[in-house]
Amino acid sequence: MDYSSPFLMGLRCVGRKLGVLRPVQIVWRKLRGEAYEQDFERALLNGIKPGDVVWDIGANIGFYTSKFADIVGPTGKVVGFEPSPETSQTLKTNCAGHPNVVCEQIALSDVAGEADFHIAAEANSPVSGLAQRSAIPVAQVCKVRVMTGDEFAAANPALAPSKMKIDVEGFELEVLRGMKSVLASPRLKAAYIEVHFSSLAERGLTGAPTEIAAMLKEGGFKVRWTDASHIEAIRAGQG
Question: DSSP states of 169-220 as a string?
Fold first, then answer.
């Protein structure tokens, strides 16, 4: 099912305005006996292979980063991007036993420089991010380093990705806009993306999910929604 289609986008918007979208999603998952992002996690972990170079964009404390490191093995690399100062330190601590992990205290976007990063009140919260969300209490705003994915790949060619995971709390459009060369490179075989519809809508980017899917398709990827919030994008010809 294409959750970026105009019909489903409109339906989702109505559900959000009526305040019934989240309850309906929870009930639907319970009826299907599925945990949140279950199918996405399965596709993601099955898609990573030994020897891959994986970008974990929005790594947080390293839940997936460590899993990726175990899968890619000694011939692969994992780059964990986590801009939050406190959470980045936790990420480094949690991945200290993985010599194939590179931790970067950087936010990826479509510009380079510095940006405000909104740190949620809960320690190491996965909902901290460049986008401020009205429903999330913010304890601190700090400046973080920002780069484009293309800039990072050009400066670190050995770390150019073959796979990537993106979970950046509503900034996924900017991340993708900042890596046009990375997306065009045949080296990149797959991208796994959480699309934060509510966060994007709050920022006035209601058409972003459609643009994200179109950008991936134009880059030569086959796009599949594993559920209502997650994309698996596989380069055509990769199976």
Answer: TT-HHHHHHTTHHHHHSTT--EEEEE--HHHHHHTT-TTHHHHHHHHHHHTT
